[in-house]
Amino acid sequence: MTDSKKAEKQSASFAVETQQDRWLKYGANVILSVVVVIALVWAMVYLAQRPGWRTDTTTGGANSLKPQTVALIQNLPEEVRIVGLFTRTEENTERKVQDTSAEVQFQQVADLLQEYQKKSRGKIKVDLIDTVREPSKVDQLFNDVARKYGNDFQKYEEVMKSYGGTLDTITKLANEEVAAVLGVRSKINNEKLALMAQEIYVTLQFFPQIMDTTRRQVKEQLDLKVPDYKGAADHIRGNLEDLNVNLEEIQKRVKGASEDPATPKELKEYVVAAQPRLQKMKETSDELLKKIGGLGEIKHLDELRQYKQNRGSIAVLGPKDLKVIPRNAIFKTAPTGRGGTEETLKPRFAGEQQITTALVALTAKDKKRIAVVRSGGPPATTSIPMAGYDAPMADFGDRLRDYGIEIVEKDISGQWMMQAMQMQQQGMPLPPEPSDEELKGIPWVVLLTQMNPRMMMQNPQAGQLGAKVGEHLKNGGSAMILVDPQVQPLDFLKDWGIQIKPEYVVVHEKVADKGARSDDITNDWQRQQAVFVINEYGDHPLVKPLNSLDGLFVPVIPVDTVPAKGFKTAKILPMPTSLKSWGESDIQSLAQQKEVTFTAKKDDKDVDLPGPLWAGAVSEKEDGGGRLVVLGSRQFATDEFASVQDRAASAVQRSQVLRFPANAELLNNCVFWISHADNLISLSPSALEVPRVSQINDRFLTLLKGGVLIVLLPLGVVAAGTLVYLRRRD
Q1: 122-126, 215-219, 651-655: which range is least confident on average?
Q2: Which residue from 256, 104, 269, 110 is spatially nearest to 193, judged by alpha carbons?
Q3: DSSP string of 518-538?
Q4: Among positive and negative, which fits the CA dihedral 235, 241, 242, 243?
Q5: Range of lowest pLDDT (111-115, 353-357, 368-372, 520-524)
Q6: How far apart are alpha carbons 2 and 438 in whole angstroms?
Q7: With 80 as the cut, is the pLDDT of residue 597 above it?
Q8: How far is CA 584 from CA 228, 493, 508, 556, in A?
Q9: For site-directed labelling of 334, which of 447, 487, 515, 606 has its Cα 20 to 30 A away?
């Protein structure tokens, strides 16, 4: 190849691009990039919106259904429908602005219902109806509810179809009577009798008008898109009752005239003939009133109408019944006086808890019941406002009732029953206590308190509580026992593989009182040796959801497990070991708030019980029968401990946040477990809002200290230095 040809080829390879060439090349690149980006975005959006591809990244899975709820809805015996009745926007009448919280709540409910439908595998159908924008759907729901659950809905329909004939009959009889009175009135010369005839005439003239008014009022109710049969029936009842009052007065006057010798012949002939006609009119009215009086309530429609006006409710439509959950139960506001007011605290979304509770109540074959059994005194979960008595565990009872669990209470000594009878005589009725026969077959919550000798002498039956519990368990029952220090021995527990040690109280070493006082009052409480804050509860399914939630326990007695054939046992509630703890035998010194120290032996005898210790144990028959939970503390179950508010977290979240949420959750889960309602064992919405920081276990802490800090970091530095040296060596 010659030099000239080489030069030509080289110059061709370095030819300058034209503007058109650049437009084509770079324009094509831009278009291709845009297309690729749009395709990627479309693919990501499509994949993100596919059912089952959503991921909840919130703490505690606040936007996802709990596993227990998923297990429940996937095993529903029949199909269930859930309908949300909310509106997207509401106008604030004071400020004349749109309330954005309505949109937020609408979306929260929409997301929750979508989760129920998606996770139920076809067992749940959901609808979300905007009560303002979709009134026709609301009307259709009301009609569906009325026909499926409306109690006497068909009877109401029958009455509404036939009531017109009754009104026609009364109108005809009234008109005939008016004509009869008019014919005789002009023949009466007696002024008194003429006035009576005139009053009867005027009164009877109003009867046809009353019937016309009734027809108009009933028509207004029946012409509604959702006929208000109950409202129509109320109009008929009210008007006919007024008519009967007037009829009875006319009959009384007619009868008096017939018996008066001064009554002229013409008037007597009228009153004799009028009496059966007036009686027929009243009998016709009474017959319709009897039909209306026999109609029941259309309760569900009334509830839906009320909650529709409040623009917020969720209706759970089960196979045979429905439950309407009002807005204030779905978005709960902390009560005034517990760290905030309804104006300052943000409502807590409790939709899942309420819907799941409704599903359990609507689909359960048998209603759950428990008995709270005590050795004396007034009820533990039922307050008596008329007597000024606030039950120490009223919140505990209310929580269980929210789950559809019925609670009965029993004083084993019988003394409270005698006091209740005296209170009833004073006009304060109290619910009767169940008989021993009624207590059979239902789980017991046993409050085992210390009984001193004097109390035992005054109330010997109270000392029989332990024996009663043992008999209940022996007969196949289940129980949760809350134990105070120094209670009577419960030897039967060993048969279940559990042993309590009420002669000890668990304490920790004294905490030095130094530095400024904390804003958290519970830090000061923990300086007391018998006060423990627990946030590790064990691996048993009963307590596993509680791990990393704080619970306050005082006083606590040690609980242990022992071998027992035919039973599966597990220890729960390990006492913290961050401070040295032990079982203290000098309970009197603790009661006097004196400092105690660990004493291993004295005069060659064991004095105090060394740690580590546990505060609870569970036992279950291997054949799947009775269940038993024993907790070495009773005071933790009271509302005083369970309702302590975390002021700092409440201020940040603008919502009521409990300082010790584990207290209430532990009680609930224990009741669910002994009731064989394992699907309910979980955490409530209030517990999910508590900031949760798990404790680092000892093994992982050792790994961090030894493996990372001592080994990995130095090796990393050496490796980095070696690489730098090798690269710069040349």
Answers
A1: 651-655
A2: 256
A3: PSSHHHHHTTSTT-EEE----
A4: positive
A5: 520-524
A6: 117
A7: yes
A8: 69, 22, 9, 10
A9: 447
What is the DSSP code (8-state) at residue 93? T
Does residue 83 contact residue 315 with C-beta atoms inside 8 Å?
A: yes
Confidence of residue 298 (pLDDT cuts 50, 70, 90): low
What one-character DSSP code corresponds to residue 452? -
Cβ-Cβ contacts under 8 Å for 156 (sequence gap 6 or more): 150, 229, 230, 233, 295, 298
Please check whether residue 206 is in contact with residue 236, taking contact to mean a CB–CB distance below 8 angstroms.
no
- Are 370 and 400 in contact, with CB atoms under 8 Å apart? yes
* Sole residue written with tokens 């144990």: 617
Peptide bond into 612 cis (omega under 30): yes
* C-alpha closest to that of 498 among 395, 570, 427: 570
- DSSP SS3 for 614: strand
Question: What tens digit of pLDDT does each residue of 142-157 get?
Answer: 777 777 775 567 778 7
CB 258 within 8 A of CB 276: no
* Cα–Cα distance for residue pair 445/634, rounded to 1 Å: 11
Q: Using CA atoms in the order 455, 461, 467, 473, what is the torsion angle rounded to 10 degrees?
A: -120
Token representation of residue 258: 């017939």
Under DSSP, the state recorded for 447 is E
Q: Report the DSSP beta bridge partners of residue 582.
A: 507, 610
**Which pairing describes strands 479-483 and 444-448: parallel, antiparallel, or unpaired?**
parallel
Backbone phi, psi, residue 425, to 5°: -65, -25
How much of the chain is in helix, strand and coil states, percent to nearest 5?
Answer: 50, 15, 35
Contacts 24+ apart (CB under 8 A), 722-728: none
Cβ of 652: how many Cβ atoms within 10 Å?
A: 11
Edge-to-edge strand ranges of the sheet holding 567-574? 406-411, 369-374, 444-448, 479-483, 627-631, 614-621, 567-574
Residue 582 confidence class, pLDDT cut points 50, 70, 90? very high
**Unique residue bearing structure tokens 């409202």:** 231
Angle 107-111-112 from CA coordinates, rounded to 5°: 115
pTM: 0.61
Owner of token pair 């936007």: 63
pLDDT at 273 over 50: yes
Cα Rg of the chain (Å, integer): 39
CA distance 431 to 17: 98
SS3 (DSSP) at 411 = strand
Cα distance from N-terminal residue to C-terminal residue, the chain: 44
The torsion angles phi and psi of 602, rounded to 5 degrees, stand at: -150, 120
Position 396 pLDDT exceeds 80: yes
Helix/strand/coil (H, E, C) string of 106-173? HHHHHHHHHHHHHHCCCCEEEEEEECCCCHHHHHHHHHHHHHHHCCCHHHHHHHHHHHHHHHHHHHHH
Kindly tell me the number of DSSP H helices and DSSP E strands found in the chain.
24, 24
SS3 471: helix
